[in-house]
Amino acid sequence: MRAQFVLSEIGVGLRRNLTMTFAVIVSVALSLALFGGSLLMREQVSTMKGYWYDKVNVSIFLCNKNDKETAANCAKGAVTEAQKQEIESELKQMNIVESVHFETSEEAYKHYKEQFGDSPLADSLTPDQMQESFRIKLKDPERYDVISTAFAARPGVQEVQDQKALVDDLFNLLNGMNFAALGVMTLMLIVALMLIVNTVRVSAFSRRRETGIMRLVGASSFYIQMPFIMEAAIAGLLGAGFACVLLVSGQYFLVNNWLVDKIDVINFIGWDAVLAKLPLVLAIGLLMPAFAAFFALRKYLKV
Predict the structure, then answer these.
(1) Which residues constitute the domain of residue 69?
(2) Could you say which residues form the signal peptide (predicted)?
(3) How confident is the model over 20-50, as pLDDT tens digits?
(4) Sign of CA dihedral 134, 140, 145, 151
(5) CA atoms within 13 A of residue 206's CA, in its CB half-sphere
(6) Which of the four pLDDT bands, split at 50, 70 and 90, describes residue 1?
(7) 3-state SS of the chain: helix, strand, coil percent to 5?
């Protein structure tokens, strides 16, 4: 009998505040969709960092005959064989270096033609104009400064370049977008909580006579509060369900059927990452409104 009464009261409350309940569902859905999307974005950035940082190298570009007037370290002309051997020997002795590859000017010219063959400058370049270089793979990509400090001012070295810096701007942009999404999510959660509290207040005020009678006949506070808490929890759970639908749809339509075909250089996260976030979204959608309603009722159900 008690369970039937609680369920009937939940139905009455949801019908009485249909408009506000719908607003709660929409705001919870959007805020939790942004929350889940932010978690997935963070995981995607971490995956991309692991993938790209593993591939980037530190490059030590050596002086050639054309750098004599453009670089201070190349004032004495092109790098000598002794200088190249000395640099290579020191690199191989460093414990932070995983591997060292020497790229000749002919190899550099070939790679340039493969990547920029359509450029107007491609036909005017010759192999002897390309720079020789050492391509260094570090055990820890963050230790670039050790290589730069050791070789940047070395005679015969035109420049030390860290390829990691080329992708850091992309990761900074993605992290900025993630923080922006988190900011919007926080604002939406605040709006959702305010709507939940107001909905519970209106519902409690409209049924103050019934709750007063229940209090007078000896009903416990928990028994009186339960219908209101369940109303908020059901609305939040429905919103969380719609958020899960948005996340799954985003993975299927946006990532799997569009971005994967458009951007083939990124290893996108899969369904396992998305499905792992859904229980958390549902749990937050259920518990957050319930706790908000519980604290709001402590004042408005006093008789």
Answers:
(1) 57-162
(2) none
(3) 788 888 888 988 988 888 888 888 877 777 6
(4) negative
(5) 14
(6) very low
(7) 75, 10, 20
